[in-house]
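User: Fold this; tokens only.

Assistant: Input:
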Amino acid sequence: MPGFKFQHDFKSIVFLELEDVDFFHSVILEAGEPDGYNRLDDLLGAVGRPKTNACYEDGTDLVRVAAYYWHGISTSHGYRQGNKRTAFVSAVNFLLMNGVQFEVPDKELGPWIERLFIENTVSVEILENTLRRHAMWL
């Protein structure tokens, strides 16, 4: 599978901040869905973890960092509603902000992700593999 090493150096990576994730969250909510935080501290940890991992984990590339955003935000239950959708949009936008495009696969991701959560099998590795199979440099 293709590698997506940092193009220049660590300082050139555009990481997400809470404000970015909050914006994505506001966009994905449907009319009538409750807004607001459920576990803000957990969400802050989920948003900060990818940067820490990028700095200290050997072999981490942009796709791995995006998978950390996807996994962390979706499992933190930081918002009252829409965590998994916000997490996916955050991961894809992180990639775009760093020059990597995600081509949406033919299969619907929503039901697949729901099944992973129901079966308690969601992991950074599974999400990373999904992103990696459908990612390409812009």
